[in-house]
């Protein structure tokens, strides 16, 4: 099939590349000339495991190309994916200006039937708004489809190639047929494609992310309670997770959910509910708890150092909001750094992928180490903010010589409690005994 993908951000690029992988011809469009030039020269602009192999293969085989020329991409394609940003606007609700703007531009270029597919996370009713833009500007038959993405950063390629499910919101039989054909190679193992109306599809995305954020937040509160009553959250997690109705995944407590999706989507859904005169109390509580959870490590530090951390130096392992990504959007590590700096402490950080992004944001406000051990040099304590695999099994002997105080505040529960006791560490983790 002939496909255009408008927007080569994280979602657009993964979508375009993975659609080319099953034999489609994909043209990716972006207004950023420099970025398009780089991609034309074979440079993958984001870090996403496995993406580079598919990216290069499909470029070489002529199925994946890049352009700034929207008219060309529209002319050449029958299916047009929109993967554009929907940042929170001034009122916190998703800002649709990129999507509606692109819809307007496309509507002026179409000369024959096209399916416009929205991949971005958008408020309920957006497909109708996009359709209205087309109705205003062209007589040509257009179907607008909602097709939310459920990709996780770090495993996005796998998630696209083997999705748990595909959700497609359209009431047009013609569009439904084309979408079923497009996705057939991805659901060969029998995973479902759910067809539904556009509004249900749009809400499915927000409901999925908000439910997962709620699940994590619930566990974060259970973890906080475990600390108070002397229980072990790992035991509780296993105890409840083995019940199929609850499930084992997304029950890991930590220092709050972050990233470009959960915080934004939970807020957008709460606001959407509000603007429809529905008070979504549960989501409000989730947001409040998560806000506090992001700085629990600092609260623990302050308690440990009797409220005074001025002049102390802390090693920080992990800056990305989660492992296997260089994404630092809404990363708990940044909130921790802020709180530490405000209190006059110093920070030496290390992250396997996100250092450049943090350097661009914070410059010399903190120090950067070349590896996880170098970060420990002269530190009063180690703080762990991201569960990168490389942090899971460090050389404790090597650490001992560097981290003289043997003090660790772990926001991701990386180490075995007994092991840390045996090694003589003060090891403060989340929801577990000291
Ligand atoms: C999330 C969803 O999982 C995807 O399905 C969705 O497509 C995507 O948002 C999106 O809307 O684009 P992502 O933000 O990449 O994906 O990352 P997740 O792996 O879901 O993690 C989100 C946050 O939850 C991270 O901060 C992570 O550390 C935290 N988390 C996750 C926990 O604290 N505990 C857990 O058990 C799992």
UniProtKB/TrEMBL annotation:
Pathway: Nucleotide-sugar biosynthesis; UDP-alpha-D-glucuronate biosynthesis; UDP-alpha-D-glucuronate from UDP-alpha-D-glucose: step 1/1. Residues 315-417 form the UDP-glucose/GDP-mannose dehydrogenase C-terminal domain. Its EC number is 1.1.1.22. SUPFAM superfamilies: 6-phosphogluconate dehydrogenase C-terminal domain-like (SSF48179), NAD(P)-binding Rossmann-fold domains (SSF51735), UDP-glucose/GDP-mannose dehydrogenase C-terminal domain (SSF52413). InterPro entries: 6-PGluconate_DH-like_C_sf (IPR008927), NAD(P)-bd_dom_sf (IPR036291), UDP-Glc/GDP-Man (IPR017476), UDP-Glc/GDP-Man_DH_C (IPR014027), UDP-Glc/GDP-Man_DH_C_sf (IPR036220), UDP-Glc/GDP-Man_DH_dimer (IPR014026), UDP-Glc/GDP-Man_DH_N (IPR001732), UDPglc_DH_bac (IPR028357). GO terms for molecular function: oxidoreductase activity. Keywords: NAD, Oxidoreductase. It holds the Pfam family UDPG_MGDP_dh. Signal peptide: none annotated. It comes from the Bacteria. It catalyses: UDP-alpha-D-glucose + 2 NAD(+) + H2O = UDP-alpha-D-glucuronate + 2 NADH + 3 H(+). Belongs to the UDP-glucose/GDP-mannose dehydrogenase family. This is UDP-glucose 6-dehydrogenase. The lineage of its organism: Bacteria, Pseudomonadati, Bacteroidota, Sphingobacteriia, Sphingobacteriales.
